[in-house]
């Protein structure tokens, strides 16, 4: 009996409804060890509200393509996209026990949703990077802006059990044991001017992600504020320190890129169990700020005497009462709350699907050669 090709009418949007049933799997080779021997599920989350509604069309295209291709891999597709981000995250968490993988469609905000659904639970995440930033995917060498290529890479990764285990940052409110804030981040925690830039870019009417961040960065650099922080930090060598910072910039990085291609933390590794803290040592003039921003696009700002940069294992950040009140914190482009917070690294808390060719490059660069273990 030939395999049935699922149609768009098979989709029933909602809270974890199976979207397609592929019928017989008689066309699959049961002797191919790379092909799963039994049916499984891919749980998918899209972002219909992103990019002024264009995310709905992108999500629809991704789902249609997955429905056509997944039956050939013995996989059903489950759409758990909710009416809000919170609902989508809750739906994804409820379906994780049934999932062979979680696939998110969008930019870094959707990566954030994905890592908060699967962190520390050993379910792999696949990224269809088609948002405005795509910084996490870019830093890993994954396809960016190519929907079908991204999906084929995910399916190949599942077929050949190709994945890497990566670190995540974790931030929780320090005043209530994580009741107010309890979030994982893949890329960066933004605490200052970087958060203001991100927020401005999110509300920009400009058409392209890179242009939005560049415009937002220039506008914020022309009106630099100094924020007051108290930090209690544990460095990578185990030494601890606490001090006050009055600074326009304080950020905690897990990955290299932010802001649609700004290489804010060029020395960050995703498998070393460490984070990086960046800060400005004084309030720059507008020309100095613009110069540092230009350097950051090429990852050359760490040599600027304005910028401080340290590898850390943990830090607690609170308001000092000096300077301006710190703005709302942003994690991977999403507002998460206010200080005080404690931030640390969760070593290899994320299992990420990655194509075999990219995996070979990752293994070659890895210190211990074990980043690709399933």
Fold topology:
Elements: E1 17-18, E2 40-45, H1 54-69, E3 75-79, H2 85-95, E4 101-106, H3 108-118, E5 125-129, H4 135-140, H5 147-159, E6 163-173, E7 182-185, E8 188-190, H6 193-202, H7 209-221, E9 227-235, E10 240-247, E11 250-253, E12 275-280, H8 286-296, E13 307-319, E14 329-331, E15 334-337, E16 341-353, H9 356-365
Parallel strand pairs: 2-3, 2-4, 4-5
Antiparallel strand pairs: 1-3, 6-7, 6-16, 8-11, 8-14, 9-10, 9-13, 11-12, 12-13, 13-16, 14-15
Helix pairs in contact: 2-3, 6-7
β-strand number? 16
Q: On the 0-100 scale, what is the average pLDDT?
A: 84
Instruction: Extract low-pLDDT stretches.
Output: 1-38, 369-373
What is the CATH level 1 assignment of the largest domain? Mainly Beta
User: How many independent structural domains?
Assistant: 2
Shape: globular
Topology pattern, helix = H, strand = E: EEHEHEHEHHEEEHHEEEEHEEEEH
- Beta-strand proportion: 25-35%
Structural class: alpha+beta
**Helical residue percent?**
25-40%
- Please tell me how large the radius of gyration is: 21 Å
**Major sheet summary line:** 11 strands, antiparallel
CATH topology of the largest domain: Tumour Suppressor Smad4
What is the CA–CA distance across the termini? 34 Å
In DSSP terms, counting alpha (H) and pi (I) runs of 4 or more, how many helices? 9
CATH architecture of the largest domain: Sandwich
Keywords: ATP-binding, Kinase, Lipid biosynthesis, Lipid metabolism, Nucleotide-binding, Phospholipid biosynthesis, Phospholipid metabolism, Transferase
InterPro entries: ATP-NAD_kinase_N (IPR017438), Diacylglycerol_kinase_cat_dom (IPR001206), Lipid_Phosphate_FormReg (IPR050187), NAD/diacylglycerol_kinase_sf (IPR016064), YegS/DAGK_C (IPR045540)
Protein name: Diacylglycerol kinase
Pfam family, one: YegS_C
């Amino acid at each position: 009996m030939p395999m049935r090709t699922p149609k768009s009418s098979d989709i029933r949007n909602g809270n974890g409804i199976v979207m397609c049933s592929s019928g017989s799997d008689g066309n699959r080779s049961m002797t191919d060890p790379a092909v799963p021997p039994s049916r499984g599920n891919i749980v998918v989350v899209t972002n219909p509200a992103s990019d002024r509604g264009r995310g709905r069309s992108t999500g629809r295209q991704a789902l249609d393509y997955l429905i056509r291709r997944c039956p050939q891999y013995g996989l059903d597709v489950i759409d758990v996209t909710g009416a809000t981000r919170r609902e989508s995250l809750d739906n994804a968490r409820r379906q994780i026990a049934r999932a062979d993988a979680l696939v998110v469609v969008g930019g870094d905000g959707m990566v954030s949703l994905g890592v908060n659904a699967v962190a520390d639970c050993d379910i792999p995440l696949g990224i269809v990077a088609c948002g405005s930033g795509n910084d996490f995917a870019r830093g890993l060498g994954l396809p960016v802006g190519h929907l079908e290529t991204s999906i084929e890479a995910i399916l190949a990764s599942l077929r050949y059990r190709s994945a890497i285990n990566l670190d995540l940052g974790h931030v929780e409110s320090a005043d209530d044991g994580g009741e107010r804030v309890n979030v994982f981040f893949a890329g960066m925690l933004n605490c200052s001017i970087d958060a203001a830039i991100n927020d401005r870019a999110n509300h920009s009417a400009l058409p392209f992600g890179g242009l939005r961040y560049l415009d937002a960065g220039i506008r914020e650099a022309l009106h630099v504020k100094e924020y007051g922080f108290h930090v209690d930090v544990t460095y990578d060598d185990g030494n601890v320190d606490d001090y006050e910072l009055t600074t326009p910039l304080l950020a905690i990085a897990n990955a290299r890129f932010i802001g649609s291609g700004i290489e804010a933390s060029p020395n960050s590794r995703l498998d070393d169990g460490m984070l990086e803290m960046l800060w400005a040592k004084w309030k720059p003039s507008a020309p100095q700020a613009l110069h540092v921003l230009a350097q950051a696009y090429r990852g050359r700002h760490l040599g600027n005497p304005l910028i401080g940069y340290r590898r850390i294992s943990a830090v607690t950040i609170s308001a000092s009462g000096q300077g301006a009140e710190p703005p709302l914190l942003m994690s991977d482009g999403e507002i998460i709350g206010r200080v005080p917070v404690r931030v640390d690294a969760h070593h290899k808390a994320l299992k990420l699907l990655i194509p075999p060719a990219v995996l070979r490059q990752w293994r070659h660069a890895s210190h211990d050669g074990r980043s690709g273990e399933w």
